[in-house]
Amino acid sequence: MIGSLLYLTATRLDIQFADCLCTRYQASPRTSHRQAVKRIFGYLKFTPELGFWYSSGSSLSLRGFSDADHAGCRIDLKSTSGTCQLLGTSLVSWSSRKQASVALSTTEAEYVAAASSCSRLLWMKATLSDFGLRFGRSLFLVDSTSAISVAKNPILHSRTKHIDVRFHFLRGHYEKGDIDLVHVKGVDNALIKGEIESQWTGLIALLV
Questions:
Q1: Would you tell me how many other CB atoms lie within 10 Å of the CB of residue 90?
Q2: Tens digits of residue pLDDT in 84-136
Q3: What is the 3-state secondary structure (H, E, C) of 64-112?
Q4: pTM of this prediction?
């Protein structure tokens, strides 16, 4: 069942995070995990009309979003990164993935998620450049002002110097002018949050 749900995430962003959680317990599933999978199938049954709309009149600007839940996994206390990238108003790439190491703070979890999303955004820019498309400074939205401050500040402080060097390429591309880091309110950034139904429906409507 999990395999079929993972296949479906290619066109259904709204179940990406739930699928990511369920895959962690495939080795030793319990009744609660089976019930969670059944709820996903129940949700899909009552939302068959959801899909993506790609407008021919959409602009060719690239934007990226990222979010993270600090220590969201109860087993190993690792965080989950949620990212998505848009070409104009069209959602073209997204992911939900558990981070490889334990983040010591919310700032670190958000910073790692932002670096992951930035790498996808830069890959898209490089790929589209092969088709003759050129992009300027891409807008990148993060709901953590602390993570944005770390990316914009070239000085390493005691609370951030332990962060793996490979994630600091986010700061390098900001300084080069490839991306522009902007804060977005947490209530408008639900990539890894379980919202109430009315808020969830409203946010999904903006993406599909």
A1: 15
A2: 999 988 889 999 899 999 999 999 999 999 999 999 999 999 999 999 988 88
A3: EEEEEECCCCCCCCCCEEEEEEEECCEEEEEEEEECCCCCCCHHHHHHH
A4: 0.83
pLDDT tens digits for range 171-182 = 889 999 999 999
Integer Cα distance of 57 and 37 in angstroms: 38
Distance CA 48, CA 69 (A): 28
Residues of the chain by 3-state class (helix, strand, coil), percent to 5: 45, 15, 40
For residue 5, the surrounding DSSP H or E stretch is helix 2-8
User: What residue ranges define each of the domains in the chain, with the CATH number in brackets?
Assistant: 2-51 (no CATH), 62-188 (3.30.420.10)
* C-alpha–C-alpha distance, residues 89 and 67, integer Å: 19
What backbone phi and psi angles, to 5 degrees, belong to 184? Answer: -125, 140
